[in-house]
Amino acid sequence: MSRAMQKLLGQTPAPSDTEALWTEAIVESRSAPTFRSADGGTPTDRIRSLKEKIDKELVAFHDRLVVDAHQGDPAPRPGTKLWDVAIPLTLFPKRDRGFSRLECIVELGLDDGDTGAIRVVSLQPEERTKVLAKAEMGAKLELKAKAGTGVEAPLPEGTAVAEAAAEVYGKAEAGAFEYKAERDCVQSEIVAGTGARWRLDDVHDPQQVGLEGHRLGLLLEVENGTGPIHAAGYLQAYSDTKWLTMTLGAFWREFKKGLRSFFKRGLPVEAYGEWEDILG
User: How many structural domains compose the chain?
Assistant: First the structure.
């Protein structure tokens, strides 16, 4: 595990055992008070139905970052070089709507732990800007690092976006995913000079969103003669809690603290990525 991943894991929650949380929710729901509903379903019925609806839901980084020498302004300082680093990711919601928001953290590091030779200069997208999604059907997904943190990877390492779409949706034709997923970037922050955070909110028409791809970007300054630079990423995507309330009713609020937090946070789906020697 690279120093970048070690540092990133110190900033993020422990990996969620989502399957165990769903099992616990089903067991807990059996003791929930009965209630009237249009479909006559019990709390357990509703939990099972929701689990089936979003089973195999997936978010993932791509297995390669897109790195190019920076052209134009700003010019590099003497003794340094600037690089454009893009972090591609793809979301696979499996519901009647897309994810309500997503958050991403990226950390950079060197083998010797000395980060004085690298500096994040700027980020894309910037705060208070609109972001339009675009799917990259030919890309391959980075799934190894999630397994490396102790959480089972949902698909084999190196699965292509089209293959993952076939697994999640039962189809993989690029034309099936033509849509406009526009989001607001509400957080775009450089962290301690070597990290970055983004939050994308408020998908404008969640019923129209299926497969959804984004490229987050950073401008990286590197001193000449610097050794291999490694990167690590953490991604979370969330359901709309209002939609969950409509789907489940209020009974889930009676769950014990851990489960209640899981639902109130929007049933987060998470992914990790790790990339070695990104300028190599």
Answer: 1
